[in-house]
């Protein structure tokens, strides 16, 4: 009797162990893509910040970016550069005690003009095409911001040191690009493998 109990117990433990191992392996292969990190250098150090490093095309239908706002505060657009997935609706807010306007001369955003509005009101616009739209204010000619509309969510905005990091990238062969408001950088062909980390730097030039 004791022997049977021992066999049953061993069999149960074996099944549990195999199931656990399979679950873990499965979890890793599904959830973990590759990571891409690196830094951007520029002719002027201030331009290392606010670059968008992104994968040009990742097959699939990617949902729009959720809960995105651009504020007008202290007579500047915050954030200065906003990367989003195509079909994202952006809310435009006025946090100043003056009237602000938002318009763009760029075709990818239908050359929209949201009008002029006081603080407290919110205007929205849905970006339906990929590309870059400059944001301007008719009331304050010095104001300027950028919306970078991308095909997929595998992008990163560089910090003041030019660093970027893109996580959970599905395995595949891609073109990695960089966007900057003033300079250009050479696209790079990359191969992303599950669980692997790639390091790629960009040098911006005129
Ligand atoms: Cu303004």
Write a structural description.
With 206 residues, the protein is mainly β. It has three domains: 1-31; 33-62 and 151-206, Immunoglobulin-like, CATH 2.60.40.1120; 68-146, Cupredoxins -  blue copper proteins (Immunoglobulin-like, Sandwich), CATH 2.60.40.420. Helix content is 15%, strand content 42%. The protein is built from one helix and 17 strands. Strands 1, 13, 16 and 17 form a four-stranded mixed β-sheet that branches. A hairpin with an 8-residue loop joins strand 14 and strand 15 (188-192). The longest helix is centred in the N-terminal third of the chain and has 30 residues, at 2-31. Bound molecules: copper (II) ion.
Question: What labels would you give this structure?
Answer:
206 residues; mainly beta; Immunoglobulin-like; 3 domains; 4-stranded mixed sheet; 4-stranded antiparallel sheet; binds copper (II) ion
Q: What is the molecular shape?
A: globular
Number of domains: 3
Ligand roster = copper (II) ion
CATH superfamily assignment of the largest domain? Carboxypeptidase-like, regulatory domain
Percent of residues in β-strands: 35-45%
Poorly predicted runs: 12-30
What is the third-level CATH name, the topology of the largest domain? Immunoglobulin-like
Order of helices and strands: HEEEEEEEEEEEEEEEEE
Q: How far is the first residue's CA from the last residue's CA?
A: 83 Å
Assigned CATH class of the largest domain: Mainly Beta
* Helix proportion range: 10-25%
| Biggest pleated sheet | 4 strands, mixed
Supply the CATH architecture of the largest domain: Sandwich
Q: What gyration radius follows from the Cα positions, in whole Å?
A: 24 Å
Average pLDDT, to the nearest integer? 89
How many DSSP-defined strands? 17
Helices and strands: which structural class? mainly beta
The number of helical runs is 1
């Amino acid at each position: 009797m004791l022997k049977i109990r021992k066999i049953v117990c061993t069999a149960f433990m074996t099944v549990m162990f195999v199931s656990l191992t399979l679950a873990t392996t499965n979890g890793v292969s599904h959830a973990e893509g590759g990571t891409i990190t690196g830094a951007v250098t520029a002719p002027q150090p201030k331009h290392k910040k606010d670059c968008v490093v992104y994968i040009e095309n990742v097959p699939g239908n990617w949902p729009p970016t959720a809960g995105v706002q651009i504020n007008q505060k202290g007579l500047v657009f915050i954030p200065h550069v906003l990367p989003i997935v195509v079909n994202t609706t952006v809310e435009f807010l006025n946090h100043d005690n003056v009237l602000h306007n938002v318009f763009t001369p760029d075709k990818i955003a239908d050359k929209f003009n949201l009008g002029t509005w006081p603080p407290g009101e919110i205007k929205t616009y849905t970006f339906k095409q990929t590309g870059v739209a400059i944001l301007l204010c008719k009331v304050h000619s010095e104001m300027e911001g950028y919306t970078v509309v991308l095909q997929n969510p595998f992008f990163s905005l560089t910090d003041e040191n030019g660093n970027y990091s893109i996580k959970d990238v599905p395995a595949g062969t891609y073109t990695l690009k960089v966007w900057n408001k003033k300079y250009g950088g050479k696209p790079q062909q990359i191969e992303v493998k599950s669980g692997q980390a790639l390091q790629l730097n960009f040098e911006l030039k005129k």
